[in-house]
Write a structure and sequence with these properties.
Largest sheet: 8 strands, mixed
Low-confidence stretches: none
Strand content: 35-45%
Number of strands: 11
Number of helices: 2
Radius of gyration: 16 Å
Mean pLDDT: 93
């Protein structure tokens, strides 16, 4: 376990379809944002917000599929809906969950890593105009996502 973790409350989360859920006991955790090229490709996004926890503190409900994204790490995901769930160093004792898979956890990153690949346009996001999802669009949506675990 890494020295820079702090005591945090329990967390839970899972995939979109509900086939894979997890629970993490209260204890040491660390939130970060990784901008490395591997995380960008694994998430299909500009960065990966991650919550690192001791692997021994994780209880699974359903079995995530894994893929060896490199010779030293595995990426976990739901084989049914494809939701990316975690990154795990094969020689480590922690699991880093994708923040978007968390349900109701107060995620607050404490540092950025992999900044050599950080997208330069991220610095402009706070200056862009904002809007909520259009109500008429929301009214048309029929979600196939499982309800979030409360």
């Amino acid at each position: 376990m890494r020295d820079d973790m702090t005591e945090q409350p329990a967390a839970r989360g899972g995939c979109q379809c509900g086939a894979v859920r997890y629970e993490v006991t209260a204890g040491p955790k660390k939130a970060s944002v990784c901008h490395c090229r591997m995380c960008q490709r694994a998430t299909g996004n500009a960065f990966a917000p991650l919550l690192e926890v001791p692997t021994a503190d994780v209880t699974w409900h359903g079995t995530p599929a894994t893929w060896a994204s490199s010779n030293i790490s595995d990426r976990g995901f739901c084989a049914t809906c494809g939701t990316p769930l975690f990154f795990r160093d094969r020689d480590g004792d922690t699991t880093e969950f994708m923040a978007g898979s968390l349900s109701g956890f107060d995620y607050r990153p404490v540092y950025n890593c992999g900044i050599e690949a950080r997208m330069p346009w991220l610095a402009q996001l706070n200056d862009l105009p904002e809007r909520e999802t259009r109500p008429e669009a929301v009214a048309r949506v029929v979600s196939h996502q499982a309800p979030e675990a409360g």
